[in-house]
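ok trying this again, last paste got cut off
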Amino acid sequence: MGSAPSPCNVRDICRAQAQRPDGPASVLAIGTANPPNCVLQQDLPDFYFRATNSDHLTALKDKFTRLCKACLLLHLSYTYDDLIFRRRSHILTRCMLHAAQKLGVQKRYLHHTEALLSAHPELLDRSSPSLDARLGIAKAAVPELAARACRAAIADWGRPAADVTHLVVTTNSGAHIPGVDFQLVPLLGLRPTVRRTMLYLNGCSAGAAALRLAKDLAEGARGARVLVVCAELTLLLFAAPQEGCFQTLVHQGLFGDGAGAVVVGADPVRPAERALFEIVSAAQTIVPGSEGAITMHLTERGYGGNISTRDVPVLIGGSVERCLSDAFGQLGGVAAEWNDLFWDVHPGSSAILDKVDAVLKLEPHKLAASRRVLSEYGNMFGATVIFVLDELRRRMESGEEEGAPEWGVMLAFGPGLTVETMVLHRSPAELQETGYASGLTA
């Protein structure tokens, strides 16, 4: 048997193990994945009402159809209930053409199909307990979806999966022990000694929160490589339509399923590794007086809770500039004009993006990546900001991102209301490849 270290050697051992990298944590690779079942927004009313055996609710289906066609489900600055909808039905007709020109959800990917719903009638009956069935489906589906995104990120990284030292997994779509993190180890071929962290129920800010943790881990030890994955299914939010319950229709028209994965590490080894974005700082802020703005809890029939479509954009609009000023103020030497940055804003809805646009007075193209992801995939909870980051990378490499800014921001909004703010910087090697000269002072 080996002998324990003597007390006089403990400090030397700790000092030797505490080697920290010289640079900030960086995004080294990105991967995304979606279920194969793609539903176009124009086909959603027929799919949804047919799959839930609700075609007899003709008035409700007509209402949902008009909303989907006009993309107004995502223009959520109104408070919708049946009475207000009836009073404003003439406004819907007048605004359809204008609203359809706004980028809303045009399609999304869903794990649940008509066949799956038919096999689980308890998911369609609001009076029937269905939590066990929902969690059982998620237990099998979430790890597989997460693994697909992770494999894409590892392939993008170019190093073996066994080189991953830390695994951070987050989901709102499950509640199991062992969790998705445990299942991913054999699925991906990770080492059994990989250090795992599992985060549940962080809402739409989950992906950014996981990246914040990954930054701390990567900067804490030289050579650490952190695989982050956020995988989400809407199955726990799924419910059949019901008169007087408009929020159910909002959920069906807004959310989609997907997984995003990122490899994070400091001091990338060139040419084996390529730093895409340096994570310069990461912060989390609770907006005062926002406790009831976004709430979620498990019930016998899936998730209960509330998303205040009226209050959330207002709360974000009232806090976003302060969060940004605090984030850049802590960096000291960086002077930022909002239009000189690139933007990864969680597209919770088009109303949220419109509010950020208006408050920060952004140029029209600044939130193009967020709007495109919302259009192509819907709101995928915490995974969405990873999709936006991948879209930004694509736009920069193709020359579509105007000016190819050097500095940028990731913003995500979660329960509470909680704001996650991350300052990003394109790595010097990436800037050299594009020939971009910074417009900011640092």
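PB: full thing came through this time. Confidence is low (pLDDT under 50) at residues 72-103.
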